[in-house]
């Protein structure tokens, strides 16, 4: 079943997450119509290869043309219109930057896999639960209710302003009427009564002006309270969700709802501003001693402009490493997107943003950076798919400034991956003759000068965003706090779901907990930063994070399809492995990651001796070097062992618990099964054709392979020559020679 078909079968809460990341950059219509073709292309490789990206973009447009031809025959007018529009948008947007479309599509496919993995995980962790508390939902409903109430109050003051205008017009009419009367009439009783009426009207006008201004003041006060308390709290919660999403957690949504609330409040304040301008006009036409409008209007107008929240919608990220945001390499471009949380046409092209780094510096060292590239841009609605005001910086590069001593700082030090820096955005809004200055910052970033520093830098980003809600604690690693073990293990599962498409189940997490804490229960307890990333594992020459990162790299580059299908148990101890296999049919095997070799994977199978004794056999772990030469699925298919004097045979029959090997891995085989070629068979140009197959020898009196050198690549033709010219005993003796390891 295609990935897109699996996505369409998800529950509605997961489908809502999918809907969040499809927009005009990559419309969902295209994903749906070209699902299989899209999934068969290597978009991730194209995101780092301009030639490949150009070819894929052209092929995408060709695929769209073919779809247009098909729907044209069906006379589907709406679909024809949409496809033509989409084709025009894609060609216009990505023609000069084909790698960007590869990045967008690669990100969408990866997020789909992450959501599919999350949907298959039966238990939510503590971090994910904390983001979905009922109190948060209740507060959101309360905010929306208060926003609606403020909007209704502004409508009421609009009526008050209109009433004041009508009352003043009537007063003006009566007053002018008196002014035109003859002098004799001015002393009449009717004239005296009219003067009393005018005085009452003036008193009423004064009262209504004060009442209207009081209501407006109350609205502004309620708006301030709502923005500075509940809405800011909502925004802080969204920032926390963004922190979690940056380290592989659930996709954050709800920013559009927040923008809607801020926009409605801004519209209400704009409406109040217009009402205050009308009151000013009325006061200009007619004022009097004690008139409240000139006294209060200016202060109230100033308060009407305190509502412009700017926010870092997409955190800094190198397009070459989309799954490692907030880690930036010197002289490598990164992207970052800022958004104004109001949506008013009056602001379009009137908002300027300047990006800088280390503007307010308080870090662990004296390293300083500058941003090269276009660092000043204007916000516009064209930068977003939903019409919001935003700006995206796509071509910024960090460059380290030389130290006062003339050197390049301490780029080579390990501590570089524990130094936090901040990208600051100075936003200037010009509106109605006023200039409003705002400032916001990204989450802390880690600067590296060599890609080899990336794993440790990413560990720092994980630890920071797990351990604190503070979005600007740049001295965090002066004294990093411990992390809750249960939260950390949840984040480890996210690393696998976001990076390699499948998270970890409770059994796999238990094994990691045991490795970290030498205990089987991880519901309580804490883990230190040193234990996670700095101290070596007991008896090993590497840290826990180095070991885990090597496994992620192994999966990503060499066994990704097998991992996504769930055929790699991976995290299981040797003791647990034997418990699982001991009662299974001979030839049952499982795949697990090596605990002693970085980035290694091995398999263990079970069989029985002649007296019925259970035996377990594990091969030397395969690492990326060996898997680059031979796909792992092919290794499992072609693997052979020589038992005593028997001919080679494949001992792997059933993937644990009882899945026939070919049923599990058949669709992942990349070549035809290897057949032994006789030396008399001639290949091209006079050579005997040969292929490599993995062969092990196992002593009949041993329950384990006696050395790592047991697993040696041997071509079928070489083995055929040995079989034809040497006796089985001679072959066995030679393979047991101490020189065979060489």
UniProtKB/TrEMBL annotation:
SUPFAM superfamilies: p53-like transcription factors, SH2 domain, STAT, Transcription factor STAT-4 N-domain. GO terms for biological process: cell surface receptor signaling pathway via JAK-STAT; cytokine-mediated signaling pathway; defense response; interleukin-12-mediated signaling pathway; regulation of cell population proliferation; regulation of transcription by RNA polymerase II; response to interleukin-6; response to peptide hormone. GO terms for cellular component: cytoplasm; cytosol; nuclear body; nucleus; RNA polymerase II transcription regulator complex. Residues 262-289 form a coiled coil. Pfam families: SH2, STAT_alpha, STAT_bind, STAT_int, STAT_linker. The keyword Coiled coil applies. Residues 563-641 form the SH2 domain. One of its GO terms (molecular function) is identical protein binding. InterPro entries: p53-like_TF_DNA-bd_sf (IPR008967), SH2 (IPR000980), SH2_dom_sf (IPR036860), STAT (IPR001217), STAT4_CC (IPR046991), STAT4_DBD (IPR029839), STAT4_SH2 (IPR035856), STAT_linker (IPR048988). It is found in: Cytoplasm; Nucleus. Keywords: Acetylation, Activator, Coiled coil, Cytoplasm, DNA-binding, Nucleus, Phosphoprotein, SH2 domain, Transcription, Transcription regulation. Belongs to the transcription factor STAT family. This is Signal transducer and activator of transcription. The lineage of its organism: Eukaryota, Metazoa, Chordata, Craniata, Vertebrata. The gene is STAT4.
């Amino acid at each position: 079943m295609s990935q897109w078909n699996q996505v369409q079968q998800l529950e509605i809460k997961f489908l809502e997450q999918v809907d969040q990341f499809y927009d005009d950059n990559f419309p969902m219509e295209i994903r749906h119509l070209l699902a299989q073709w899209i999934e068969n292309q290597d978009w991730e490789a194209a995101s780092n290869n301009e030639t490949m990206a150009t070819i894929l973009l052209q092929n995408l447009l060709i695929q769209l043309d073919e779809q247009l031809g098909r729907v044209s025959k069906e006379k589907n007018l709406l679909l024809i219109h949409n496809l033509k529009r989409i084709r025009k948008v894609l060609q216009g947007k990505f023609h000069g930057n084909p790698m960007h479309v590869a990045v967008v599509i690669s990100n969408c496919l990866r997020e789909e896999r992450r959501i599919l993995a999350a949907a298959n995980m039966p238990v939510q962790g503590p971090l994910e639960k904390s983001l979905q508390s009922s109190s948060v939902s209740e507060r959101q409903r309360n905010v929306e209710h208060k926003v609606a109430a403020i909007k209704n109050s502004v409508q009421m003051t609009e009526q008050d302003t209109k009433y004041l205008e009508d009352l003043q017009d009537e007063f003006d009419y009566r007053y002018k009427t008196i002014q035109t009367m003859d002098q004799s009439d001015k002393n009449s009783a009717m004239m005296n009564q009219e003067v009393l009426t005018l005085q009452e009207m003036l008193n009423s006008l004064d009262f209504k002006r004060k009442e209207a201004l009081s209501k407006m003041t109350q609205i502004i006060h309620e708006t301030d309270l709502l923005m500075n308390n509940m809405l800011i709290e909502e925004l802080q919660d969204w920032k926390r969700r963004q922190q979690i999403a940056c380290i592989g957690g659930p996709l954050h949504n709800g920013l559009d709802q927040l923008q809607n609330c801020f926009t409605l409040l801004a519209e209400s304040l704009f409406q109040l501003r217009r009402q205050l301008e009308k009151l000013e006009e009325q006061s200009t036409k007619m004022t009097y001693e004690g008139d409240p409008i000139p006294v209060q209007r200016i202060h109230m107008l100033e308060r009407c402009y305190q509502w412009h929240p700017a926010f870092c919608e997409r955190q800094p990220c190198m397009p070459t490493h989309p799954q490692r945001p907030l880690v930036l390499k010197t002289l490598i471009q990164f992207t970052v997107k800022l958004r104004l949380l109001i949506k008013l046409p009056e602001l379009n092209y009137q908002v300027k943003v300047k990006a800088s780094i280390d503007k307010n510096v308080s870090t662990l060292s004296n390293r300083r950076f500058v941003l090269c590239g276009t660092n000043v841009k204007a916000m516009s609605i064209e930068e977003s798919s939903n019409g919001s005001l935003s700006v995206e910086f796509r071509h910024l590069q960090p460059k380290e400034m030389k130290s006062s001593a003339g050197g390049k700082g301490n780029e080579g030090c390990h501590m570089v991956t524990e130094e936090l820096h901040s990208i600051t955005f100075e936003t200037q809004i010009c509106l109605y003759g006023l200039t409003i200055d705002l400032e916001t910052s990204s989450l802390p970033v880690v600067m590296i000068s060599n890609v080899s520093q990336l794993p440790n830098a990413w560990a720092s980003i994980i630890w920071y965003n797990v351990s604190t809600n503070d979005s600007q604690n740049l001295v965090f690693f002066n004294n990093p706090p411990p992390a809750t073990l249960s939260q950390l293990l949840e984040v480890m599962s996210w690393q696998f779901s976001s990076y390699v498409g499948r998270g970890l189940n409770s059994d796999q997490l238990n094994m990691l907990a045991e490795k970290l804490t030498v205990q089987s229960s991880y519901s309580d307890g804490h883990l230190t930063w040193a234990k996670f990333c700095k101290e070596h594992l007991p008896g090993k020459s590497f840290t826990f994070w180095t070991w885990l990162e090597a496994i992620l790299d192994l999966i990503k580059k060499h066994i990704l399809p097998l991992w996504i299908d769930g055929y790699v148990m991976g995290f299981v101890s040797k003791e647990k492995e034997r418990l699982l296999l001991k009662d299974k049919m001979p030839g049952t095997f499982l795949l697990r990651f090596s605990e002693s070799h970085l980035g290694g994977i091995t398999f263990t199978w079970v069989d029985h001796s002649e007296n019925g004794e259970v035996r377990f056999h594990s091969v030397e772990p395969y690492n990326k070097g060996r898997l680059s030469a031979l796909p792992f699925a092919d290794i499992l298919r072609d693997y052979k062992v020589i038992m005593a004097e028997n001919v080679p045979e494949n001992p792997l029959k059933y993937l644990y618990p009882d899945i026939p090997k070919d049923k599990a891995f058949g669709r992942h085989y990349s070549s035809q099964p290897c057949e032994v070629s006789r030396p008399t068979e001639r290949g091209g140009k006079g050579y005997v054709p040969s292929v490599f197959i993995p062969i092990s020898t196992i002593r009949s009196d041993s329950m384990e392979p006696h050395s790592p050198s047991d697993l040696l690549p041997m071509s079928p033709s070489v083995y055929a020559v040995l079989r034809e010219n040497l006796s089985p005993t001679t072959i066995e003796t030679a393979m047991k020679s101490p020189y065979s390891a060489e």
